[in-house]
Amino acid sequence: MPNTNVFTGADGSISLSVPPGTEGEKAQAVLDAYQLVSVGRVQNVRVEVRSAVRPFNEIGQRYATELRPGNIEVSGSIGRAMINGAMLKILLGEAADSRPAGSWAQPAINITLLVENPAHPGARNTLTLHDVKLDSWVYAMPEDDFILEAVGFRALYVTVQDEG
C-alpha cells in the first residue's frame, strides 16, 4: 500500500553512513571523531533530482517527435546550526587540517533522510543519497540571528523506500 500521509520537517531525521572504499574510510574517520551518525539541528534540507530530457525535432515539425532521457543529476543542500567543523572536514578531507603536498581523496558519505509521523507509526518515507560528496560550504554569521553553516552536495544516485 502506498504511503499517503502528510509530513512536516519536525517528522524528519538525517543520518550518515559511509560507502565502501578509500573515500568512505576518510569520511568514517570524521564521523567517528565528531560522533556524527545522526545529524542534528538542521533546517532547509533540499534534495533535487534532475533528468536531462532531450527533445528530438524533425525538420518541418513544430512539436518534438520524441523525448529522450539523458543524464540524471542528484544535488541539494543542508543548513545546519551546529558549527563544529565536521562538514568542512567532509568537504576538504586532509586539506581541512593543513595544506597537503599532493592530491588526496575527498571523503564520500551516504545521507539517509527519514520522515515518520509519530501519529501514524510504521508509515515512513526513506530517501537515501549514495556516494555523496560535498561541493560547497557556507558559514553565515548574521547580526541578530543564529549562526548557520550550509553545505551543498552532489550524489551519485538516490533510492527511495515507502512504508505504510
Radius of gyration: 19 Å
- Derived structural class: mainly beta
Euclidean distance between termini CA atoms: 7 Å
Assign the CATH topology: Pnp Oxidase, Chain A
Please give the largest β-sheet: 8 strands, antiparallel
Question: Overall mean pLDDT score?
Answer: 91
Strand content: 35-45%
Count of helical segments?
2
Percentage of residues in helical conformation: 10-25%
Uncertain spans:
none
Q: Which CATH architecture is right?
A: Roll
Work out the count of structural domains.
1
Morphology: globular
The CATH homology group name: Hcp1-like
Number-wise, the strands total 10
Give the class-level CATH name.
Answer: Mainly Beta
- Report the order of strands and helices: EHEEEEEHEEEE
Give your account of this protein's structure.
The chain has 164 residues and is mainly beta. The chain has a single domain, classed as Hcp1-like (Pnp Oxidase, Chain A), CATH 2.30.110. It is 12% helix and 45% strand. The chain has 2 helices and 10 strands, in the order βαβββββαββββ. The chain has helices spanning 22-34, 86-92, and strands spanning 12-17, 38-39, 42-51, 54-56, 66-68, 72-80, 109-116, 124-140, 148-155, 157-163. The strands form 2 sheets. Strands 1, 2, 3, 6, 7, 8, 9 and 10 form an 8-stranded antiparallel sheet that branches. The chain has a two-stranded antiparallel sheet with strand order 4-5. The longest helix is centred in the N-terminal third of the chain and has 13 residues, at 22-34. The chain starts with 11 loop residues before the first strand and ends with a strand.
